[in-house]
Amino acid sequence: MALENLEIFEIASKYFLGQMTDLKDLLVRKINKLDSMDWVYNKGSVKTCKADETGRKMRCKVGLKYGLKVELSIDEAELIWEAFQKFFKESYFEKIERNRNNEELGRYEFIARTPKGYEIECRIYLANEWNIPQISISGFVSSRYKNCDFSK
């Protein structure tokens, strides 16, 4: 996949959904209890921006998500972080970070971003009095023109 093709909305949407699906599948292979559960998929929605000076409208895709209610351990959260880092180091995502602010509450957050504004996030909530145990992989595609807009 050429990086310049990711400027086209349809191609970028398909690519980043593929990245999320590939990450989910990788995690399922690494952690057995993720394989025996039913993942919930939300296809997200397309938001249309205001028309620019040429009359073309950019679009973004928000709400893409895989979710699963499952009880994970701290060790499994660490394995997921290692897999997350490795997976996105081999992609167009240049900024990979871990938000440690809420880990003492059993909430883990891993984020991969591109300079163009795409983002994929993995959140893990461990079981405790504040959390419903779960894992989610979510993302969005920043504003892009559709393929047909490039011919105008």
From TrEMBL:
It comes from the Bacteria. This is Uncharacterized protein. It comes from Streptococcus oralis.
